[in-house]
Amino acid sequence: MIRDHKIKKMNYSLVTMIALSLMPIMLLIGCDGKTSPADSSSKVDYASETGAPAYGDALIVGSIGEPSVLIPMLAGDSASHDVAGLIFNGLVKYDTDLSIIGDLAENWDISPDGLTITFYLRRGVKWTDSVEFTAHDVMFGYKTIIDDKTPTAYKEDFLQVEKAEVIDDHTFRVSYKKPFAPALSSWGSMPVVPRHLLEGKDITKVDYRRKPIGMGPYILEKWDSGEKLELRSNKDYFEDRPYIDRYIYRIIPDTATMFLELQAGSIDLMGLTPLQYSKQTNTDFFKKNYQKFKYPASGYTYLGFNFKNDKFKSKKIRQAIAYAIDKQEIIDVVLFGLGSIATGPYVPNTWPYNPDVERYSYNPEMARQLMAEEGWKDSDGDGWLDKNGERFKFTIITNLGNDSRKKTAEIIQWRLKKIGIDVEIRIIEWATFINEFIDKRRFEACLLGWGIDRDPDQYIIWHSSKTKEKEFNFISYSNKEVDDLLEKGRRKYRIEDRKKIYFKIQEILADEVPYVFLYVPDALPIVHSRFKGIVPTPIGISYNLHEWYVPANLQKHKLLP
Amino acid sequence: MFILKKISEMLVTLLGITILSFLIIHLAPGKPTDILTDLNPKVTPEMRERLEKMYGLDKPVLVQYGMWLKRVVKLDFGESFSTDRRPVWDKIKEKIPITLIINILSLVLIFVVAVPIGIYSAVKRYSYFDKATTVFVFVGFAAPSFWIALLLMILFGVKLDLLPISGIRSLDHNDLTYFGKLLDYSSHLILPVFVSAIGGLAGISRYMRSGMLEVIRQDYITTAKAKGLTDKKVIYGHALRNALLPIITILGLSVPGLIGGSVIFEQIFGIPGMGRLFYQSVLGRDYSVVMGILTIGAILTLIGNLLADLGYSLADPRVRKT
């Protein structure tokens, strides 16, 4: 292809673009905009073709959101973390079974009292501007995070640190006031920033925010705001050079459009909706060209009861409601069966998850009986439960714009009606919902979801001290035993010790039903079949992106010299 | 004198608009910091307060307005409240060209198509052409633009594989020749321009038709016809000039819309324009970007009105005299 360097420099200035676009538009001719490689997609059966790993090709990922800032500690949205995760590594990372393994830190020691962690950093790792990565960078990152002027949401974990010190270029030590198990995982990519580029600069203003230099598998090359980000592989990546040469993050704000782009072959990877996964991607075209994956997403949806409200004071009533809701039915209707029943606040098949707790399988008779034991009976025969002449009635609130929550609420309403509980649903715009209803505790029951952190510590959600305005135990749950266990869980480092604690917590939560745990939805990524080497695990598929490859004969995008 | 008076009126109106907008967006529940802090278990209430202080959100609204106004007088819209913290003007600047291009092209398309349709329908009132265009135009007006957009995308993008589905340029855009780039941009723009024009066709062609019918009934047209002028001369020489007057007003009013951009089709076609920027800023309670766009919009609206007034006085001698 001919390249004209003069034209290459031309940005899309106003005048040029008008000039460029006016003429053909006026003629309204349909012109072939596709300049991408020949469309042989229908002929090759990518799914059955195999080949040896080879360098090259490009992976085009579709995303609804656009990153805003690419320094991990400043980012708040998932798009930013998606891309920053390719550019930066952490000291430690999660293995596919959610245990913690070394990344930039080769290994580490934890002192017997659990107060001090010493990290031994990998030698010879270089930032992509060829400066060596050292413990001073980590120290600088730590200082930046705890600096009052840094607007980061991740400060809390680092404020627990009593002392941080650089022992030598490749040894870094932190001490805590109290043993703090979530500490280890906090030393992921958050505190890793290059001191030599950022020292003495205002981190809220520097160009580096949108032109980061990292040491991860990919290097940001170009960012067309609102369109796409282009990354190229880091040939000196300390693990292994990634096979796929280019990673292109396309921003397509509409899911319907994104799905059309997938069908047209213009993107290679996107997350499907349950509807698309189960009904729209079973054609021959998709079977030949795409591979679908399914694994539990790290999040769950629940119905939470406000413990400040007398209606839900009794455990039996909460259990009755849990029995009256058919969770599998919600999954079948709302998610087309693509999810699993939640039994507690952890992802199924990860180590903190306790599979043997009370499940409250759908049982309306049991629900009616439990309600009757609390004195709620249908005494006037109108189909609704009542006590002292008053109906059992409550309102579920949830946020606007989340269709699956709305449908879930409606199914719950219908099921509870069957046992004689009168439910109303209120759907409220997000900001109002949080500020006026959740924060002010003005609700009876709420339908919401939590993302599940990879560390099992959930002190902030369940501990009875976290019930003030804006804190996250907004249902005002309080249980002495859970409090103690949560505190203990933070002090232990070994997985076996922690496992016992969090298993016990799940048993108590299942018995007490502060939330009716409803479902864990499935994440449903689809990837073009020419990409090989993808191994799905409980933490998803993208953890080994640098090992994905396209056999030479299947490569689609050739990099021009 | 006329212009000076108008301009001083405009400044007062502008001040009023900014005060009202500022108050209203601050009245809405939520804060720019919510996106980092809402239901984020890593954020403690103390940290939330610290963040709000950092952004100056703990001060009374009027004080915040004062600070904002002081900056804006110096033509500085400040920094975005979103996590990217970029200057507001940078964010707006990079979105304006594409929005402007699409809007200008669609405006041109609307007028080029709608004005002749309007005239012809009026002259040949109740003819088959009149009826057919009426139906067509109203169907276009009534059909939701996102639906039309999706249908066209399926047809031209997936089935026929003629046009790109979304975005404004291809991945290999920079490797293309000058002519290739031109084709690339325009093939990306065909569908968005067409879809955004379709809704406008109905309005303008109806205005044109009713304006024309109104004029044709006037005595001076009868006079002109009585003088023995040809139909052509009567319609294009006498009637059209008067019938175009309301269209000038509409043109003036569409000036602010030029940078407005439509959320719906920008969202669907994945166009990085003003509509999406505004929508996202409102959702994220990004006060400074919202205020920036509203202020620019207000200024353009006022200028548009002024231009319409001036255009009117040029086209219609009666306005000049009063």
Describe this structure in words.
- The complex is a heterodimer of chains A (561) and B (322).
- With 561 residues, chain A is an alpha+beta fold.
- Chain A has three domains: 47-88 and 216-294 and 524-554, 3-Layer(aba) Sandwich (D-Maltodextrin-Binding Protein, domain 2), CATH 3.40.190.10; 92-198, Alpha-Beta Complex (Dipeptide-binding Protein, domain 1), CATH 3.90.76; 299-521, Dipeptide-binding Protein, domain 3 (Roll), CATH 3.10.105.
- Chain A is built from 18 helices and 22 strands.
- In chain A, helix 11 (315-324) runs antiparallel to helix 13 and helix 17 (480-491) packs antiparallel against helix 18 (495-512).
- The longest helix of chain A has 18 residues, at 495-512.
- Chain A is globular, with a radius of gyration of 27 Å.
- The N and C termini of chain A lie close together (10 Å).
- Residues 1-41 of chain A have low confidence and may be disordered.
- Chain B has 322 residues and is mostly helical.
- Chain B has two domains: 2-73, no CATH class; 96-321, Orthogonal Bundle (MetI-like fold), CATH 1.10.3720.
- In chain B, 76% of the residues lie in helices and 0% in strands.
- Chain B has helices spanning 2-27, 34-37, 45-54, 61-73, 88-123, 128-142, 145-159, 178-216, 219-226, 231-243, 245-260, 263-269, 274-283, 287-315, 317-321.
- In chain B, helix 5 crosses helix 8 and helix 11 packs antiparallel against helix 14.
- The radius of gyration of chain B is 25 Å and the shape is globular.
- In chain B, 37% of the residues are buried.
- The mean pLDDT of chain B is 83.
- At the A-B interface, helix 2, helix 5, strand 10, helix 8 and helix 15 of A face helix 2, helix 3, helix 5, helix 7 and helix 8 of B.
